[in-house]
Amino acid sequence: MMEILPDSDDNVLAVKATEKLTSEDYEATFVPEIERRVSEQGKVRVLVYLDENFRGWDLGAAWDDTKFGLSHRKDFEKIAVVGGPKWIEWGVKIGKPLVPGEIKTYDGPELNQAMEWIKA
Predict the structure, then answer these.
(1) Does 33 have pLDDT greater than 90?
(2) Distance CA 65, CA 81 (A)
């Protein structure tokens, strides 16, 4: 499940992911919000908070995430990934060269720090 956090505004989209993400989460929440913000603001800043109940992506969501990320990679000014298992950090590091914007990872308790960075 994915929900938009109240800290989102203008070119900043902050989302919280919990349990297992599905294609429907991307199609109903994430993709429309990113596309709207890109069309209104240009480049966007995204914070993804993976809470303690996050269990990953189903196959369709993983594919949607990859496709969307690659097709919109130049639209991201900053990306912060907060929390999640250790393999998430490794995945972010591997994908970093594909995204021209800045990308940082934070541990779950560093959500406020990440929010400050994404908005700065």
Answers:
(1) yes
(2) 14
